[in-house]
Design brief:
Length: 414
Amino acid sequence: MKCRHCGQPLHLPFLDLGSAPPSNAYLSEAALRAPEVWFPLRVLVCTHCWLVQTEDHAGREALFTHDYAYFSSFSTSWLAHAKAYVQAMQQRLGLGEGSCVVEVASNDGYLLQYVQQAGIPCYGIEPTASTAKAARALGLEVVERFFGVALADELARADRQADLIAANNVLAHVPDINDFVAGFARLLKPHGVATFEFPHLLRMVQGCQFDTAYHEHYSYLSLTAVQRIFAANGLAVVDVQELPTHGGSLRVFAARADAAAHPQATPEGAARVAQLLATEAAAGLLSEGFYSDFQPQALRIKRELLSFLLQCQAEGLTVGAYGAAAKGNTLLNFAGVRPDLLPYVADKNPAKQGQHLPGSRIPIVDEAHLRAHRPDRVLILPWNLRDEVAAQLDYVREWGGKLVVAIPRLEVLE
């Protein structure tokens, strides 16, 4: 395999999780009687540009389907994050009724609803029909297409260029990262700004977050790699912020590389970019040794989870889980957990209730099921929402139950 950015051969392994089905390919009752497609799940490192990436096995159309079940609006903390972002960008960029905001991968309208409420013209680009339908129900315009140079050129010719393009948690999800990034340079107005949020590779390694590896995540990103990819495709990184979301993310501000005297290209922003690049270099991201210890951490977490579930079974403690998240599917499938050890997972998304987790085939139930069965232990699968979920499930303590997380280490929350 060759690097999907620079084309150099890949030889440095980072993570091997065997094989798994796509993490968002939830199963209906009828689907349980049919074969299930699994793909190898291996992650490699390009030692030329330092882009960390999955092997190519599953195309985007196989992963981001019409019935895609991930809806951003079911997380209250993520909604608060989106609202704060819109307010910050409105103030920073002076956005108003004469501006145009575009979100690429706009999902169910979780972010653009706040742009719309502020009276700023906007539209979304979203290829999955299920989430696009939910956004349109909010009165939002959605272009139901995959984004890249071809679509960007179409929109630019139609005078639909943007003052701000938001791209939250999508840069890692694209197989042709060069075409995707180049599209932003075409769709931005000359002094427009694009912001990209994505989990930071450095925090992924430091936090043992191996479960963020799944087929929908084609890339695992550092600022070092992103700056190189942007520079090759007509964008310049002008600022960066570190965020606590998803276990530690970056928000990268980018401008068109051909924009002279860009108002967002400040000395302060350049200093923050230089400092974070230096931090990554000091941590070893530009050396092969940095990537060698991640596999053992994944194996440790797998053993800890299995030991915990087996011990609970031996002691007669009942266990349920909360949050039918993609990262949870990676964890459960790598550990080989099945309904005999974890009989159900509760989730508040109606699109997932009544379905089964891919691979493990664990039933997805509503939260009322959790209250009715009163498990002794509840495993929180979306650990990045640990505080939000712990507050939501505080009632578990009423019957003496305890909450549990598995990453970065197995911990029973007191």
